[in-house]
Amino acid sequence: MIKLKRLLVFIFSVTLIASCTKDDPNSGGGGSIDRTANLKSLGTSASDLLSDMTFTSLNIEMVYVEGNKPTDEGIAKFQSFLESRIYKPDGIQINIRSVNSSGKAPFAVEEIVEIEKDERTAYNVGDEIAVYIYFADGSNEKDTNEKFVLGSAYRNTSMVIYEKTIREFASRPGAPNRATIEAATLNHEFGHLFGLVDLGTTPVSNHEDPDNEGHCVTEGCLMRASIEFGSGVINLIDGSGVPNLDDACIEDLQSVGGK
Fold first, then answer.
1. Reading across the β-sheet that carries 128-135, which strands appear in turn?
2. Poorest-confidence range of 8-12, 41-45, 79-83, 118-122?
3. Of 124, 132, 154, which Cα lies nearest the Cα of 61?
């Protein structure tokens, strides 16, 4: 599932922290709705998400498995991040609803794709672009005791958040609170939808991590593939809040229509 330019983020060893993967499945959906614009490669809709040239509003469909609803604080932090980076004069709408468990955990990305076919209802229409976010009730199938995944961006407008894994990590002594981990994961994964780093948005400057393709080399940036191990990571996230994008990443977004 892990490919070039689709690696882990927020890797923690032993004490662990937030992680992500990026996958690019090519399977589509059925039915009468035109889904084709939302079934493209990761990063290909960066300009559409960031600018108001084609789409003047953003509709985010959050679907959570019962018992795995994200916190209101985490969602508020996420919306604030989007508002600081994108031009959508007609607004950003977040709709959230619960669904039954698929019973498929732990998940391969192919199973997440199948769930999206069944559960997603929001697609691009008119001047509104739609994004689908699934909050899962299980873990990624490749998780280990030393490294686990908190979120995956796998299409141009699709991502999964492993909410059950976030809850388990947040309950550990000394871990950041759940809302902060949720927001960091959501913001980071949306950064990949924005095409960062070199995942559809061409970098303005050379700041891609040579050891972790698809991520930023700047220390402390939201798009870093890994932050310090152990208490150093916890102190950075818990003490300073959700990491911000560095100047190089912001310049990349501005080059394709973002703020």
1. 20-22, 151-155, 158-161, 128-135, 57-65, 92-99
2. 8-12
3. 132
Q: Are 105 and 137 in contact (CB under 8 A)?
A: yes
Selected from 3.10.20.340, 3.40.50.150, 3.60.110.10, 3.40.390.10, the CATH number assigned to the domain covering 20-255 reads 3.40.390.10
Q: Which two tokens stand for residue 63?
A: 């679907």
Contact 160, 124 (CB under 8 A): no
CA 194 to chain centre: 10
C-beta of residue 58 within 8 angstroms of C-beta of residue 82: yes
Question: Cα–Cα distance between 18 and 242 in angstroms, integer?
Answer: 11
Retrieve residue 241's tokens. 């809040």
Question: Residue 54 corresponds to which tokens in the numbers above?
Answer: 């084609």
Per-residue pLDDT reduced to its tens digit, 241-251: 889 999 999 99
